[in-house]
Design brief:
5 strands; Rossmann fold; mainly alpha; 336 residues; 3-stranded parallel sheet; globular; Tyrosyl-Transfer RNA Synthetase
């Protein structure tokens, strides 16, 4: 239609390893809900990335379905975006092999996450742990993605994707791939571990008491916040260097209520850390429990979730196949 502009493609996903945390929700899913109307959005559960570490098959399947159900329960509309599971779109693996032939070992060996994770693997380092940035690049390039919402720890992977796309564009033509950019939302929350507030909240934390999971009961959420690390002072102020624990609680409240940090802090004039912990817990419970309940309903009922996933996989595959055919023609495969 004359006068309309095509929306840019934005793509993001979360590994369904272990359970989704409050950090996944505030740092990613809540952001997706805000932006889904502004872009041609693709959101997925990246289960193929999950198997770089050994997974229990039944648990991975359960976590994957619950993760996607949480996306929907949080406000992702599968009618307005493409919502799918990575392994249900075979073109991800297909393009990843091609990119394996255009990525360099030196590039992959410099990936910070590979260095960190391989250090924990001893001598038995899975090849997938080394090459998974190329699968991530395939995820991005498959959909002509313009923007990739990422945290600071993932920008290196987007840069690698850009390098490979530009390399192949130089060989096969400037329109072979869309060159993506990292998109770091200004309002995204960086949620820290409750017990070790200098570290990011993680699904794989050694001590689960430092992480809030979407599947946690109200009682568990309250218990974990009551045990949250603060400091020996009594002043409630935002200071990530000297008061990381207190700052984390304030940030969590701000991210959920959409209040500024100044507004949150003002409510605690003359109050103690106990008030801050308990009230943060109550705000989190009010936010997460309805999402948890709706997600569980979707998983238990199955029919609607299966319909959504089938529709998402079909829509994703349709776009992905166009990309595969274009790339195969460019590199010289016989395309029928």
């Amino acid at each position: 239609m004359t006068g309309t502009t095509e929306k840019k493609v934005i793509l993001s996903g979360i590994q369904p390893t272990n359970k989704l945390t409050l950090g996944n929700y505030l740092g990613a899913i809540k952001q997706w809900v805000r932006i889904q109307n502004d872009y041609d959005a693709y959101f997925m559960a990246v289960d193929q990335h999950a198997i770089t570490a050994r997974q229990d098959p039944a648990q991975l399947r359960k976590n994957t379905l619950f993760s996607v159900a949480c996306y929907i329960a949080a406000g992702i509309d599968p009618e307005r975006c493409v919502l799918f599971i990575q392994s249900q779109v075979h073109q991800h693996s297909q393009l990843a092999w091609t990119l394996n032939c255009f990525g360099y070992m030196g590039e992959l060996s410099r990936m910070i996450q590979f260095k960190e994770k391989s250090a924990k693997s001893g001598s038995n380092i899975p090849v997938g742990l080394f090459t998974y940035p190329l699968l991530m690049a395939a995820d991005i390039l498959l959909y002509d993605t313009a923007l990739v919402p990422v945290g600071d720890d993932q920008t290196q992977h987007v840069e690698l994707t850009r390098d490979i796309a530009e390399r192949m564009n130089g060989i096969y033509g400037p329109d072979t791939f869309v060159i993506p950019k990292a998109h770091i939302p200004k309002v995204a929350a960086r949620v820290m571990d409750l017990l070790t507030p200098t570290s990011k909240m993680s699904k794989s934390a050694v001590n689960e008491n430092g992480s809030i999971f979407i599947s946690d009961s109200a009682a568990d959420i309250e218990r974990k916040f009551k045990r949250a690390t603060t400091d020996s002072e009594t002043v409630i102020a935002f200071d990530t260097e000297n008061k990381p624990g207190v700052s984390n609680l304030l940030s969590i409240q701000s991210a959920i209520t959409s209040e500024s940090l100044e507004e949150v802090i003002a409510r605690y004039e003359g109050k103690q850390y106990g008030h801050l912990k308990l009230e943060t817990a109550q705000i989190v419970i009010k936010e997460l429990i309805p999402i948890q309940q709706r997600a569980q309903e979707l998983v238990d009922e199955k029919t609607e979730l299966n319909r959504i996933l089938k529709m998402g996989a079909e829509r994703a595959s349709e776009h992905a196949e166009r990309t595969i055919k274009r790339i195969h023609e460019r590199i010289g495969y016989v395309v029928i």
